Q: What sequence folds into this?
């Protein structure tokens, strides 16, 4: 087997789809070193992909009340997997998060070398901790942000925000999953290591996205905007709003579609899927 994927969720299945018959999702939990090492010795993968982790259901507020579970999944478990991969000399890929920053770094976007500056949620803190620890090892870390997909799913960013009664409208970096997977496959094939922001170039607001949704998917959809201050009155954790630089990715010769173009094209396909499901 070429690819062994850990995690049972949305992103794990995206990797399974991308790698096809060469990949398998493991049923082994990665919080026990001996179980993980036995699984790797049995399956003998060339590439180990860690998509496991707690993001919280229905959102990151869950992590505020389940800190130990979040810490174990997002920090302890990736280190256990990294230890097993190092002992067996296996190439490891870890799905990180871009939700470790706040702001836009004077419009340039935060690079992979910038120290995370957002500590408003326990989820984001755990993702920053694991990223920092894994930096000392030969691991490829892919920062994913607000995954946007052309296929309807409860974990898809557009499906999620269209169910909210009110939304904030602040510019953010977003990972359109079709592009994210193409970049991931390229970096993995090259056996690249280190941290990479894998988001589409540019920033976009929720309002811009929802206006496109009305234009391309559902002309009857309506939404209301509210402020960050109003939102924080009803959430347990603050939300990361930030822009990331993709210069490092582009220096590798990997050029993704500009975010507005990628979202527009994804929404057209999204509508087609909804029509087939109707």
A:
């Amino acid at each position: 087997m070429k690819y062994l994927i850990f995690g049972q969720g949305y992103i794990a299945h995206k990797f399974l789809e991308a790698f096809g018959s060469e990949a398998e999702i493991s049923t082994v939990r990665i919080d026990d070193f001996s179980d993980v090492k036995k699984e790797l010795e049995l399956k003998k993968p060339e590439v180990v992909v860690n998509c496991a982790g707690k993001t919280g259901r229905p959102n990151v507020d869950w992590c505020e009340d389940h800190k130990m579970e979040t810490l174990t999944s997002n920090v302890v478990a990736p280190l256990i997997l990294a230890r097993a991969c190092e002992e067996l000399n296996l190439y490891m890929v870890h799905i990180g998060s871009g939700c470790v920053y706040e702001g836009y770094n004077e419009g340039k976007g935060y690079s992979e070398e910038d120290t995370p500056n957002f500590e408003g949620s326990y989820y984001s803190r755990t993702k920053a901790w694991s990223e920092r620890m894994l930096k000392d090892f030969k691991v490829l870390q892919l920062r994913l942000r607000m995954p946007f997909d052309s296929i309807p799913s409860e974990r898809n960013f557009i499906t999620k925000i269209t169910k909210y009664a009110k939304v904030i409208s602040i510019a953010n970096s977003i990972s359109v999953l079709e592009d994210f997977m193409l970049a991931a496959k390229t970096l993995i094939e090259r056996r690249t290591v280190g941290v990479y922001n894998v988001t589409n170039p540019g920033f976009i607001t929720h309002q811009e996205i929802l206006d496109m949704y009305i234009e391309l998917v559902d002309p009857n959809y309506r939404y209301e905007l509210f402020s960050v201050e109003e939102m924080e009155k009803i959430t347990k954790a603050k939300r990361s709003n930030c822009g990331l630089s993709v210069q490092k990715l582009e220096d590798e010769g990997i050029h993704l579609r500009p975010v507005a173009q990628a979202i527009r094209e994804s929404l057209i396909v999204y509508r087609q899927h909804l029509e087939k499901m109707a």
About this structure: The beta strands are 3-6, 23-25, 47-50, 91-97, 139-144, 166-167, 194-197, 224-225. The longest helix spans residues 67-87. The longest strand covers residues 91-97. The chain is about 40% helix and 10% strand.
